[in-house]
């Protein structure tokens, strides 16, 4: 049985590949040539009609190096997507950006707040508030530390830069895999703006607008906002609702103060809200527990993921408020530029979900998070006429995380697990044998009540020095020193009556007639007696209680900090970059880079937090009676059924060797980067069926290349092509939650990714009226989705695979009076595939999965003034 994407016909697939060959050369990563006027002109809205698609419009200005340079001059593997492309391609949030940036991947999981970004096969961060992402997201220079604060719809964006590889020497916080930098438009001193309205299938309605202009000769303002509402495309028949909808809005205001030509202040305040019912997870494999669901009258749509039908006992709820403000001050003192960026942000995220993904009321989860962040960055950069220039910066980051969460046992839980045990009255007998109140096991109500906190304080000093050896050769050295401190707490009360009892120790108590009831009494027995009792207690043929271990979902929790574990991580690191850049000619640049990167420890803020093996050693069957000496046992603080795992994962250390070539000719340009990148201690967060296991992989590496190009054969036509090849492997990961992954390709990392586009701009005479047609195609080669599931073992790697072939397009009529009318479609061929799979919650053998979004289409009317 092989679960793969739904393919189009052979004719469709042949046509797609023929289109790739025909387009041949292009560059979503180099920004569309017809859009470059936005990045070059002081006022992006003042592009002249004859510049659209013009032969010289492929000069792209970026700030990837914390200075304004052209894309060709920047010796960094960076891709750029302009605001114009975002509009034409209907890219509404960062998740959509992957269709035009092939080295970037994203995946949205069980809620709107859980999106992971991946560059060159490296990335993590979703599902656990204690894990900071390996791919840093910055909006107007402000670090957004969690995915819930990154995924709002994009408004008034000038460009998005994707920096590939470790970027620690340019960014002050966690950029071990890369950076996504979103740059929005500054207020202008000339009055202008735009309004846009969109209507699409699934009753999508979007309103978007911005206005900017002067207040005085030295003060300008801008206000932008958007509202996006769309019905869900997944039907929940038993509740009479549709889920996977859109309901989000945002508002942002800016002030730009320029009291002199040397001094500028930019203040930004914003608020965004998401209130959605997300996200659909359907059945991929109907395991042996499904008949029990049906016997209870529960419903699922078995092994029919792309039918977009779900059965739930409650509607999922995602509510996210993200707001904050920043002040950036820039001062030019002759050849020195000083920059200060101060920012405060707050994130509030609430999630409620039926986590068994059926209409039976078995288990639900509630999670409530609050994250406060403050950051301060100071930079000084030189622009001397001589051969030596530098950038020096300091960065301070303070974050406080608070999370409460609960698991709630449903009304059908006891009956469901009784059926799985094969006897409707089984738990009544267990309760009688163990002295528990009747009907207490899996009784409706709270299963867990959880509270977690994390206080993070980090200081970084970073900088680069450029030395021009000759007019053509520049040597660069960069560094970053980071000191990162985290203090965390985890407290959980478990109300699982069965989970409170160790089944090995309970047998020993009964076998000794109650004369042995504590570890001290057991240890006082002669060694031969201990061995005899333990042998009987761990023999499933003798101890009838042992099969009940499969139903002990939430044992007691050892809170941290405690007498042994202090709940602290302390990391410091020195990272550096060495680079040589050479201008072969005015059109060709080459560079070589060796760089290291760093991401500090991440904390397991979840009910799956467990002591490290160095702090605790459980006895056979998690017996406390037979537990050998360990710091936690010796301190007398062990709780029943305590097991080992992780409280945190150690730092990630990145290393990359990269050779790049950038060439720009009239009507044609390309970029090529060859790299060998390694990440030691990759922080893996794998779902195990009942929770997430956070652990460091020994080493993960990726070798490959990135090629992107643009060709403008005639003024109206721009062709783009980008290709990423990745040879990614776990060099060492023997102790993952699903077994030894050493030698395997990390799940979901395609070997080949393509992104192509063709844009044709037709002017009606010399009227200044244009018809712009655009089509783009995104391909990911066939790849394993997961590295393993407990029910399937290593065979899961071959069972669950996907291939991606997405076609998007738009047709825009742009009139010289500022009116634009567009028709657009995304995933036009309705290609369906699985984005991720996971074990069914407390349903061994069942596999659930997340499908991609179906075809969407609509029309937009925009007026620019």
From TrEMBL:
The keyword Cytoplasm does not apply. It is found in: Cell outer membrane. Its main location: membrane. Residues 37-57 are annotated as: Disordered. It comes from the Bacteria. The keyword Transferase does not apply. It is a multi-pass membrane protein. This is TonB-dependent receptor. It comes from Pontixanthobacter luteolus.
């Amino acid at each position: 049985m092989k679960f793969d994407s739904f393919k189009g016909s052979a004719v469709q697939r042949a046509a797609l590949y023929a289109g790739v060959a025909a387009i041949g050369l292009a560059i979503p990563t180099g920004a569309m040539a017809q859009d470059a006027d936005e990045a070059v002109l002081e006022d992006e809205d003042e592009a002249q009609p004859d510049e659209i698609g013009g032969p010289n419009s492929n000069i792209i200005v970026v700030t990837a190096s914390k200075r304004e340079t052209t894309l060709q001059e920047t010796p960094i593997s960076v891709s750029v997507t302009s605001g114009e492309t975002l509009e034409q391609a209907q890219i509404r949030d960062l998740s959509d950006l992957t269709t035009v940036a092939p080295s970037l991947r994203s995946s949205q999981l069980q809620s709107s707040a859980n999106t992971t970004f991946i560059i060159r096969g490296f990335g993590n961060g979703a599902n656990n508030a204690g894990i900071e992402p390996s791919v840093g997201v910055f909006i107007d220079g402000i670090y957004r530390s969690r995915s819930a604060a990154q995924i709002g719809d994009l408004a008034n964006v000038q460009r998005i830069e994707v920096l590939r590889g470790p970027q620690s020497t340019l960014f002050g916080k966690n950029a071990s895999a890369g950076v996504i930098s979103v740059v929005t438009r500054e207020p202008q001193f000339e009055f202008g703006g735009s309004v846009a309205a969109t209507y699409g299938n699934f009753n999508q309605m979007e309103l978007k607008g911005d206005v900017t202009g002067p207040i005085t000769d030295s003060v300008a303002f801008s206000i932008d906002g958007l509202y996006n509402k769309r019905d869900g495309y997944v039907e929940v028949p038993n509740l009479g609702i549709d889920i996977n909808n859109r309901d989000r809005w945002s508002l942002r205001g800016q002030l730009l103060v320029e009291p002199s030509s040397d001094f500028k202040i930019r203040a930004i305040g914003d608020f965004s809200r998401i209130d959605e019912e997300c996200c659909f997870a359907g059945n991929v494999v109907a395991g042996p527990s499904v008949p029990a669901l049906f016997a209870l009258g529960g419903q699922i749509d078995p092994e029919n993921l792309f039918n977009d039908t779900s059965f739930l006992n409650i509607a999922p709820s995602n509510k996210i408020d993200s707001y904050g403000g920043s002040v950036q001050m820039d001062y030019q003192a002759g050849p020195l530029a000083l920059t200060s960026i101060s920012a405060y942000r707050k994130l509030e995220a609430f999630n409620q979900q039926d986590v068994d993904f059926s209409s039976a009321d078995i288990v639900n989860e509630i999670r409530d998070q609050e994250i406060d962040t403050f950051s301060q960055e100071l930079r000084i950069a030189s622009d001397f006429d001589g051969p030596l220039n530098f950038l020096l910066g300091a960065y301070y980051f303070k974050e406080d995380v608070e999370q409460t969460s609960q698991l709630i046992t449903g009304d059908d839980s006891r009956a469901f697990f009784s059926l799985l045990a094969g006897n409707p009255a089984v738990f009544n007998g267990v309760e009688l044998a163990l002295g528990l109140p009747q009907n207490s096991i899996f009784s409706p109500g709270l299963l867990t009540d959880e509270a977690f906190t994390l206080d993070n304080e980090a200081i970084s000093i970073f900088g680069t020095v450029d030395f021009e050896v000759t007019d053509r050769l520049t040597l660069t050295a960069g560094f970053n020193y980071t000191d990162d401190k985290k203090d965390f707490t985890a407290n959980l009360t478990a109300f699982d009556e069965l989970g409170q009892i160790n089944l090995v120790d309970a047998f020993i108590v009964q076998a000794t007639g109650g004369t042995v009831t504590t570890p001290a009494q057991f240890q006082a027995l002669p060694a031969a007696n201990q061995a005899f009792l333990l042998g009987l207690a761990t023999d499933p043929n003798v101890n009838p209680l042992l099969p009940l271990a499969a139903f002990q979902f939430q044992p007691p929790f050892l809170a941290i900090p405690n007498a042994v574990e202090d709940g602290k991580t302390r990391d410091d690191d020195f990272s550096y970059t060495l680079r040589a850049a050479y201008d072969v000619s005015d059109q060709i640049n080459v560079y070589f880079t060796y760089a290291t990167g760093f991401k500090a420890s991440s904390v397991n803020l979840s009910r799956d937090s467990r002591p490290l093996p160095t702090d605790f050693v459980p006895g056979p069957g998690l017996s406390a009676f037979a537990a050998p000496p360990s710091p936690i046992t010796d301190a007398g603080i062990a709780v029943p059924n305590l097991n080992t795992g992780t409280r945190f994962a150690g730092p990630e250390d990145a290393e990359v060797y990269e050779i790049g070539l950038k060439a720009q000719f009239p009507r044609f340009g390309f970029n090529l980067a060859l790299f060998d990148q390694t990440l030691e201690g990759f922080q893996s967060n794998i779902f195990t069926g009942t929770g997430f296991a956070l652990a460091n992989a020994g080493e993960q590496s990726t070798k490959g290349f990135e090629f992107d190009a643009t060709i403008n054969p005639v003024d109206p036509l721009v062709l783009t092509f980008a290709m990423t090849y990745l040879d990614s492997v776990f060099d060492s990961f023997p102790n993952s939650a699903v077994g030894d992954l050493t030698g395997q390709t990390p799940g979901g990392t395609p070997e080949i990714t393509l992104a192509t586009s063709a844009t044709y701009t037709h002017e009606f005479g010399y009227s200044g009226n244009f018809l712009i047609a655009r089509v783009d195609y995104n391909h990911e080669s066939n790849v394993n989705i997961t590295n393993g599931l407990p029910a399937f073992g290593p065979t899961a790697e071959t069972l669950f695979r996907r291939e991606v072939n997405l076609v998007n397009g738009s047709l825009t009529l742009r009139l010289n009076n500022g009116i634009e009318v567009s028709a657009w479609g995304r995933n036009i061929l309705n290609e369906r595939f699985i984005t991720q799979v996971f074990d069914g919650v407390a349903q061994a053998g069942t596999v659930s999965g997340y499908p991609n979004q179906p075809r969407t289409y609509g029309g937009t009317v925009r007026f620019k003034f």
